[in-house]
Amino acid sequence: MSYINILEEHPYNSVLNLNNRSATDKEWAERYNFIKADRSRLRTSLDASGALVPDWFPLIPMLSDDATRRQEVSLRTNTRYLYVLDSEEDGVGYFLTEIVSPVLAKFVHLPGITYHSFGSHNGVIVDCAFQWGGRRIAIGEYKRNIINVDAWYNSTFDRIPGQNKLTRELRGYAMEYECPQVFCFDINCLVLLQFRAKKLDDMKDCDVDYWVFPRREAHDTVPGYPLRDALYRLLVQGIRRLQNENLPPPTIGSETSCGRAFYSGEPLWRHADGKKHRFQPDGYERDAEENGQLLWKRDGQWYIDEEGRSLGFSHFGEIALVCFDVRIKLCSSFFAPNFSSLSVMASSHSFEFQWKSQTLCGRGGPICLPSHEYANIIRLSLAGGTIQELPNKIILKMQGERHDLFQTEQMFYEKEKGLQELGLVPQYHGLASIGGTPALVLSDLGGTMIHDNPSLAQDENTLRDKLTELLGAIRRAGVVHEDITVLNVLHCDDGRFRLVDFKEAEMNQSIDEDKIEDEVAVQVSDLVLIMKLRYEARMKLQEWESRNKHATPIQYESLLRHNLSSAVNAVDIRGSVLAKDGFINCVRGS
């Protein structure tokens, strides 16, 4: 039986907490500021009846798509005799089974998200992360009975050395992983944190919202708040942040936003007091269609522009699989499927940019791929046809939060003219500016990512030869590119492979033919293996679909979810297996 209200339930299984404590004394955490206790940032309180009441105001409110998402099928966890929580691993097992699993059931389609145990990042190791399209929604750390609940409720935790060390560690994770949504579960309690950084650089000393939820079971007489719902809301906040990541400030009515808050993606507006606020202009509000596309409303109605289009402040809807007829559906009024080109793009919008003392216009939009989205990469067709020195179709790659990566890529294109002349990488046409943000002007190579054409693996020798030719030429130019995946190798209309995305490339590297041969062979083998796995997965999926073609849509969806791990294995862009939560974001018709 399904329980659509499972997020509002406490777990039914009994727990014995042996109350063993872990300590936190990580040397690297000393370089980060502790979180200052502030009663105005404590977002949980007790009402007159003793019930725990969270204040969700700092988060973007639940929108229309949440109603759809929360009604996704969920099952209660299996009954068991008893959880005995002794080690940190015991706590992780409990949290994954009783809290994470029911929550992930709500994120099968809108959007499909995955849970990952994490490795090291600059020597800092966080325990886990939730991801959407390869980007972090939220990160989490597991402990044992370390959180002093009373001190957090009284907002005195920053005076206690052990709690002080813990908050330094949690801020360190947020900064290193550039993720403002953080949680900590210590067997006894779940703490949610939101680092209110208007800009990425503000993470080091920004205010922090905090929610404190003691763990409860369904049979407890002491009231509490369901951890499942709390975690769900934190994940939705992370999704909203990514839906607006790196987008330019919107204009609504006569008002233009003065920026976006890094921690939420929300547009900021300058009010009469001269301060920036998250509150939108009078009469306007943000909402989401049931499919997740973020749009503006005015006086309760969807806001329509003069051309009869809904006006959105997010360029992207979520991409979901319509299971019963295996079509890819873009859940957004802005998009239409186009599998023959590299990307699916927003319905054409006018963009103005400055280039070489000229103000130029083009129509297009940010690139949206079936398995990935790039808010800072805009594909344009120039108004009035080809402009002297520029092709008709161009790519504008805007600078993001990491200025150093943008500068690395700019340096690559300015230096590596030979690779451009050979036609192995995009042609570089200098710098442009979009609303004050610098952008690389690149030729549009067209074609498709090899990620989207698994059938290339049918002829393994040809695939291997083409990859070897391309990557060998790049390496012999003195460029070391360690971040080559099936997403940035393009299969172009002339049959050749080309490479894009050089923000992490290293230049002026030594050229040793023997070493180059070995290095390239390793990269090629990795890519070929991923393509073979993707092709085999697609064949298995097609075979399975042919056996179940008479299933009703509901039966089909249920069967697909049940058989996904064995039929598809959902190979991601680096060849690892995605969490088996029933969402295909990498296997589709080529």
From TrEMBL:
InterPro entries: Kinase-like_dom_sf
Superkingdom of the organism of origin: Eukaryota
Name of the protein in question: Protein kinase domain-containing protein
